[in-house]
Request: fold
Amino acid sequence: MRLLVTGASGQLARSLAEFDETEPGLSIVVHGRPELDLENPGIIAALIEHVRPDIVVNAAAYTAVDAAESDSARAFAVNAGGAGAVAAATFARRLPLIHVSTDYVFNGGHPLPYREDDVPDPRTAYGRSKLAGEAAIAAANPDHAILRTAWLYSPHGSNFVKTMLRLAGTRDTITVVDDQVGNPTYAPDLAEAILVVAARMRDAPDEPRLRGVFHLTAPDSATWFDFAREIMQLSADLGGPAARIAPIGTVDYPTAAERPRNSRLDCGKIRDAFGIELPRRASSLAKCLRQLLGA
Reply:
């Protein structure tokens, strides 16, 4: 199976790249800017023709949530226009498309984990651009799986775990929001699950249960405060930096873009369709910290 993955510098694309040729018959080709720029959709079809993949994974996105509030045109160009261009190019070559989306398509006010059939209501420019991307993909290529995920962390790129470790090296106390809840998700676990989705879509091209919108996060929920305390405890156990974590409210940490208070996603649909359930956070966070700390 040969995959073309967009978004070379992102956590997910870099995690997918680590699976390249780990087993016979698997080839993962990762491309990002400048050779693949979703703001220049004219080059997408040519790259797909050159790589000749069996399936495309669109992990590229404009993810600067706060900056998108004042730069919404670019966010929509990448997350909606670019995603639609990838979908059109894959449809022209009769290729399945896996597209990565986000919890930000919801407003965060629901008391329960969000299901795929809950009505989206994004409150940010980033969320609106990602929802527009989902619509563009659905319109351009019916052979798609849209995977909404949330709160990614990994040894790669910028993420909450790496930020906490960095701050713990210079501060005795770190204040962290305690009234936003979600499912911290280890990017390598998500990457491995995407390989399962890709193989099933390839092997069952006419199976409607394997197409559409799915939620895919780790099963354990936490607030940012809870997650930060777990990071500090594990880091200390491994001989790494640690600091005291003090809870604050969202009101005490203002941002340009409104954060969803509830980012939890119900992953029952993908479990039923693909048999996928990501590992629990304790084991995945330990793997991440061991790699980051060299422990």
About this structure: DSSP finds nine helices and twelve strands in the chain. Residues 72-92 form the longest helix (21 residues). The domain at 2-158+184-219+262-278 is CATH 3.40.50.720 (Rossmann fold). Residues 131 and 147 are 12 Å apart (CA to CA).
